[in-house]
Amino acid sequence: MMGFGPVRPEPDEPVFHAPWEARALALTLACGALGEWTIDTSRHTRESIYPARYLSLSYYEIWIDALTTLLVRRGLVTEEELSAQRSLRASRPPRRPALKSADVSAVLARGGPCDRPAAAAARFAPGDRVRTRLLNPAGHTRLPRYARGKAGVIERVQGCFVFPDSSAHDGGDAPQWVYNVVFTGRELWGEDADPGLTVALDCWDSYLERP
Prior knowledge:
The protein has 211 residues and is an alpha+beta fold. The chain is built from 8 helices and 5 strands.
């Protein structure tokens, strides 16, 4: 969308390009296990980095930048401690105890399921034509800007899941039905798009309306 050209995958790309990247991932997972924020909060914090700074950072630099913001915001680290590069006081206890190294494998294997029981039947079924709402929310959303106000077809009902737009802002799970919606390339990008292209997006119920 910003005109940066095609995505060019790196051949035989390593899992990490430098040892510090592995530490960045480990720190992010360990701090996430403290129970102070949700994965949606973490994602929103990364996406809220000022654009010029965001574009100047590498992938894991973005993770560390956002993690630092969250730790300060939740009162687990202070700006003074960041400047001093050391602890200056005893931090308040986190919601959950620190993740022990012996428990890491089990915690990662368990994951963080986000499916939830449904309070009502799904509004849409496979084959239904729908249109995404033309939304411009001030906060977090998983509806891409390029797919807003576009018509598509429900391919399948995925189930009922935590609503990220609520979860990212400490608003609770607020679960909604999620649908896999297929759009044509021309619907998304106009007549110059590849006529054989389709894009499938998972859309929460409140993103959709009947055309």
